[in-house]
C-alpha cells in the first residue's frame, strides 16, 4: 500500500500546493486518507506528521475513514436553517440510525449513506438545500427527503 501511495503523491512534491493535491489523490484513490499513510506523506513532503494531520483535519472534505456508497450533504447555513435544514438533518440521521449526540458518526450501518453538514451550496434562495452524490437539490421537503434517504438506505437489499 505504501508503494502505491507513494506513486500517487510523489508527482506533487515540487508543485505549489502539492500537499493538497497529494492528499486529494489519496482520498480519490481510497475514499479516505488512512492514518497509517500520514508518516509517508510527511516524509515525502519533508514536513512533520502534525502538519499533515493539521491539513487533513482542517479541510472537511478529507476523511479519516471510508464514506458510504452515497454521500448526502445537507446545508446547515443560516438561510437553509431558516427554512428547516436542521429538521432535515435530524430526521435523516434518525432514519439512518445515527446517534443524535455523536456527530462524528456519519455513516449508516449498511454503509450505504454518509450524511454530512455543509455550509452553503449557493442555493440560499431555494433552501433547504442538499447535495446528493454531487447533485444539487433545492426546496426539499421533509417527506420527499425522507423517501430519498429510505430508497438510498434500502438500495442493494
Ligand atoms: S444557506 Fe443553504 S445554500 Fe446557502
Q: Which helices and strands, and how do they pair?
A:
Blueprint lengths: L1 H8 L8 H13 L7 H8 L3 H10 L11 E6 L2 H4 L3 H11 L17 E6 L11 E3 L2 E3 L4 H13 L3
Parallel strand pairs: 1-2
Antiparallel strand pairs: 1-3, 3-4
Helix pairs in contact: 3-4, 6-7
The structure holds FE2/S2 (inorganic) cluster (FES).
FE2/S2 (inorganic) cluster binds next to helix 5.
Features:
157 residues; four-stranded mixed β-sheet; 4 strands; alpha+beta; binds FE2/S2 (inorganic) cluster; single chain; elongated
Query: Major β-sheet, in short?
Result: 4 strands, mixed
Please give the number of β-strands. Answer: 4
User: Poorly predicted ranges (pLDDT <50, ≥5 residues)?
Assistant: none
The oligomeric state of the chains shown is single chain
What order do the SSEs take from the amino end to the carboxyl end, as H and E? HHHHEHHEEEH
Round the mean pLDDT to the nearest integer and report it.
93
Shape from CA axes? elongated
Helix content percent band = 40-55%
Instruction: Please list the strands of the largest sheet in the order they lie side by side.
Output: 2-1-3-4
- Rg calculated over all Cα atoms: 18 Å
Termini gap: 32 Å
By helix and strand content, what is the structural category? alpha+beta
Bound molecules: FE2/S2 (inorganic) cluster
Strand fraction band? 5-15%
Count of DSSP helices?
Answer: 7
Amino acid at each position: 500500500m505504501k508503494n502505491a501511495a507513494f506513486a500517487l503523491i510523489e508527482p506533487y512534491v515540487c508543485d505549489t500546493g502539492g500537499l493538497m493535491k497529494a492528499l486529494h489523490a489519496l482520498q480519490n484513490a481510497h475514499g479516505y486518507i488512512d492514518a497509517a499513510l500520514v508518516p509517508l506523506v510527511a516524509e515525502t513532503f519533508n514536513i512533520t506528521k502534525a502538519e499533515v494531520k493539521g491539513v487533513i483535519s482542517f479541510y472537511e472534505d478529507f476523511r479519516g475513514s471510508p464514506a458510504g456508497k452515497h454521500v448526502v450533504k445537507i446545508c446547515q447555513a443560516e438561510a437553509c436553517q431558516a427554512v428547516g435544514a436542521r429538521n432535515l438533518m435530524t430526521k435523516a440521521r434518525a432514519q439512518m440510525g445515527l446517534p443524535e449526540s455523536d456527530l462524528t458518526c456519519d455513516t449508516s450501518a449498511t454503509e450505504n449513506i454518509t450524511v454530512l453538514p455543509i455550509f452553503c451550496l449557493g442555493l440560499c434562495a431555494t433552501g433547504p438545500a442538499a447535495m446528493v452524490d454531487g447533485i444539487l437539490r433545492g426546496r426539499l421537503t421533509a417527506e420527499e427527503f425522507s423517501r430519498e434517504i429510505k430508497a438510498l438506505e434500502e438500495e442493494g437489499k
